[in-house]
Design goal:
Structural class of chain B: alpha/beta
Shape of chain B: globular
Oligomer: heterodimer
Strand order of the largest sheet of chain B: 6-7-8-3-9-10
Family (chain B): Belongs to the ABC transporter superfamily.
CATH architecture of chain A: Orthogonal Bundle
Number of domains of chain B: 2
Largest sheet of chain B: 6 strands, mixed
Number of helices of chain A: 10
Shape of chain A: elongated
Largest sheet of chain A: none
Helix content of chain A: over 70%
Protein name (chain B): ABC transporter ATP-binding protein
Keywords (chain B): ATP-binding, Cell membrane, Membrane, Nucleotide-binding, Transport
Membrane topology (chain B): Peripheral membrane protein
Distance between the termini of chain A: 28 Å
CATH superfamily of chain A: MetI-like
Structural class of chain A: mainly alpha
Order of helices and strands of chain A: HHHHHHHHHH
InterPro entries (chain B): AAA+_ATPase, ABC_Ni/Peptide_Import, ABC_transporter-like_ATP-bd, ABC_transporter-like_CS, P-loop_NTPase
CATH topology of the largest domain in chain B: Rossmann fold
Radius of gyration of chain B: 24 Å
CATH architecture of the largest domain in chain B: 3-Layer(aba) Sandwich
Chain lengths: ~280, ~475
């Protein structure tokens, strides 16, 4: 009895994770710990330059070495991970919430509202995602907010489309009709019938969305249209360290590795057993 | 070489809390075997063990002899080469077995081409010939979504039998079909043994077993309770369970208590209703009334608008024309019971939670629940489970409980027991009728079983012939 209660409560709030998802969650937790513990344990400023100590190998004082301006790579990486994750979280939340709400409304109400919202989503979809982001970045170069708004505008469509399609089926289902006949209101129907069906898909989309937001930001940083130096950002760090790859390959490998692990952990978390 | 086409020797199935006792049979050409039993009796598993399609976690053991060739039942891959050519399975819900994006004739032609090995042109011809023979000549170009349940069943049959397999296993072939379609399917199935094959049918419909004849095996909880020739088993069952099963046939049910006074104002009355769907007229000038406590039966072929009629009375669907008057003062008095009980519940919450929601939403009196649950034969412990974790019969009774808490004045029961086995069906409907009488709740009961309707309903409305042009409303004199 006790066991079944436990499993069912867990099922409601967190989908039961399989092996791969657990690995992803662990990696993500390690990265989070790294990003937030470093500034707390080490007194390191990601922007402090020490030109006498450039491209130094990892040592006790600088566990990950220094870059071409003598800045602590440990501090810079931690700061970059914080930035990437924070921005991913922000853009996923601001894409998922309107996406889900509009999707439910469109799928539920149908008719002209559905058509209007559907065409709006199609209009956004007609623009390639990266182009939209570039467009906004061109309007406000180096601005975090332009980047964030651009990425969110690309991401919400996925939630909208998935939720709309699923809602349309569910609204016509006997379970919703039964509850409606029993006198329950729309909020109840959403909470008890729609959300439990939508949640696993929305959470999967969110994990993938976070990964693509991080990649988009790094890609823009790498081609130097994203955030401006001296911000510590993964793509920006890569391009800054690229000229020194011969002298300090370990320095350049660091942001690449971190980006890889970050995206891998989110993709592992999102991927469900295809059974 | 034996004279038998299919022999099973001591086939057992084990795993995940399921145990099927050793089962043996020997079927020669032209014989029929019917496995009869309630949900969960293991009848489908036996068929899957023969095919080699048992779900993961279940292991079969024993020996199978198919057409003189011996197989180990545990090795489920060994029979794959026989699929379609020697062994064919007619799946339970054929519309799930058909490709929704492919026209009916192509699905049949595919079997002719890839299983029977005909070339493209001959396969196409053979497929059209098959469909024409099954009365589906005009349905060949349609997608499965456009076919009715009975038509989809026939298409699936044509596709499954195109390979010419002599051994056909039909898993609940008549589930959810109305009486004439059911008879047509039985006739269709009977062709296999007539042409020298073997037919194994899995069903909980005693009538189907009787029509097919041959050998009947009654299963319960994985055990063979009784077996023998259909004639004998289905007229004079020896086992207690066999007797109970036969007693659950609608024609043997006791009649419900008489309605009593009928002069009360109707709970719902409709005049001159009309409805068309998909360009087809379902009915026109249909008038009816349902009085408190009255059981009104609705019969008619699939797709004739029985459910639509009920939904119109509930106010869920709009009528094209006509007037519906509902008793006033009961905003929540119009309720519905669904054909597939699990579909009417959100599968993610425990029943106690769902019941709680209802009580809180309408500030109901909690003290009426335990006696009503006892009356419906529902154990308190069931409330701790999710809808998918209790049987269909229990869930349907829970649905009745949920509905009765709102003190309905009109209940539309849309084939509420068609997915339940006969014994559960009988007890569920008996309770429903009893409670409807007691609480003066008018019930509109849809069923595809005329015997059932004739037995428990005070009045009967029959809808539709094939192209519904006129509506006959038969008012049987109160059968008392």
């Amino acid at each position: 009895m006790n066991g079944s209660t436990l499993t069912s409560t867990r099922r409601l709030f967190l989908p039961t994770l399989n092996g791969r998802q657990r690995l992803g969650a662990t990696l993500l937790a390690l990265l989070l710990a790294f990003a937030w513990l470093v500034p707390w344990l080490f007194d390191a400023d990601p922007a402090r330059q020490q030109l006498t100590r450039i491209l130094q190998l990892p040592s006790l004082a600088e566990p990950l070495g220094t870059d071409h301006l003598g800045r602590s790579l440990l501090a810079r990486l931690a700061s970059a991970v914080r930035l990437s994750l924070g921005m991913a979280l922000l853009s996923v939340a601001s894409a998922a919430i309107p996406g889900v709400i509009l999707g439910v409304i469109a799928g539920w109400r149908g008719g002209w509202l559905d058509r209007v919202l559907g065409s709006l989503a199609d209009a956004f979809l007609a623009l390639p995602g990266l182009l939209l982001v570039l467009l906004l970045v061109a309007i406000a170069p180096g601005n975090f907010w332009a980047l964030y708004v651009g990425i969110s505008l690309v991401l919400w469509i996925e939630y909208f489309r998935v939720v709309r399609a699923r809602t349309r089926v569910l609204v016509a289902s006997p379970q919703l009709e039964a509850s409606r006949l029993l006198g329950f209101g729309p909020l109840y129907l959403f909470r008890r019938h729609l959300w439990p069906e939508l949640a696993p898909q929305v959470l999967t989309l969110a994990a993938f969305g976070a990964a693509s937001a991080i990649l988009a930001m790094a890609a823009l940083g790498f081609v130097s249209v994203g955030l401006r130096p001296p911000t510590a950002e993964l793509g920006l760090m890569m391009i800054e360290l690229l000229p020194y790859y011969h002298e300090a390959p370990w320095a350049m490998a660091q942001p690449i590795l971190v980006l890889f692990v970050l995206v891998l952990s989110l993709n592992l978390l999102a991927g469900r057993d295809p059974r | 070489m034996s004279a038998y086409l299919l022999q099973a020797e001591d086939v057992t199935i084990q795993g995940e809390g399921v145990t099927i006792a050793p089962f043996s049979c020997a079927l020669e050409a032209g014989s029929r075997l019917t496995l009869l039993g309630e949900t969960g009796s293991g009848k489908s598993l036996l068929a899957q063990a023969i095919m080699g399609t048992l779900p993961r976690g279940l292991r079969a053991r024993g020996r199978l002899v198919i057409d003189g060739e011996t197989f180990d039942a545990a090795d489920d891959k060994s029979r794959r080469a026989l699929w379609g050519r020697r062994l064919a399975l007619l799946p339970q819900e054929p519309w799930h077995a058909l490709d929704p994006t492919m026209r009916a004739v192509s699905q049949v032609a595919e079997s002719h081409r890839h299983v029977a090995g005909r070339d493209r042109r001959h396969a196409q011809q053979a497929a059209w010939a098959d469909l024409a023979e099954l009365g589906l000549a005009e349905a060949g170009g349609k997608l499965p979504g456009e076919l009715s349940g009975g038509m989809a069943q026939r298409v699936a049959f044509a596709a499954a039998s195109a390979g010419g397999a002599p051994i056909v296993i039909a898993d609940e072939p008549t589930k959810g079909l109305d009486a004439p379609r059911r008879d047509a399917v039985v006739e269709l199935l009977a062709r296999t043994p007539e042409s020298g094959g073997v037919l194994i049918t899995i069903t909980h419909d005693i009538d189907v077993a009787r029509r097919l004849g041959g050998e009947v095996v009654i299963l319960r909880q994985g055990q063979v309770v009784e077996r023998g020739p259909a004639q004998q088993v289905l007229t004079h069952p020896q086992s207690e369970y066999g007797q109970e099963l036969l007693g659950a046939e609608p024609s043997r049910w006791p009649r419900p208590a008489p309605l009593g006074e009928t002069a009360q104002a109707p709970v719902v009355s409709a005049t001159d209703l009309a409805k068309a769907r998909g360009g087809r007229e379902l009915f026109r000038e249909l008038s009816l009334t349902v009085r408190p406590g009255e059981i009104v039966g609705v019969v008619g072929p699939s797709g004739c608008g029985k459910s639509t009629l009920g939904d119109m009375l509930l106010g869920v669907t709009r009528a094209d024309d006509g007037k519906i008057q509902r008793a006033t003062g009961h905003p929540l008095g119009f309720q519905k019971l669904y054909q597939d009980p699990p579909a009417a519940f959100s599968p993610h919450w425990r029943l106690s939670r769902l019941l709680d929601d209802l009580v809180r939403r309408h500030r109901l009196d909690r003290s009426v629940i335990p006696p009503l649950m006892a009356r419906l034969g529902l154990d308190e412990r069931l409330l701790e489970r999710h809808p998918g974790e209790i049987s269909g019969g229990e869930l349907q009774r829970f649905a009745i409980l949920r509905v009765l808490l709102l003190e309905p004045c009109f209940l539309f029961a849309d084939e509420p027991t068609s997915r339940l086995d006969p014994i559960t069906q009988r007890s569920t409907l008996a309770l429903l009728v009893e409670l409807a009488r007691e609480r003066r709740c008018g019930v509109m009961l849809v069923s595809h079983d005329p015997a059932l309707i004739g037995r428990i309903c005070d009045r009967r409305i029959s809808l539709g012939g094939e192209p519904v042009s006129e509506v006959r409303q038969t008012l049987d004199p109160a059968l008392a």
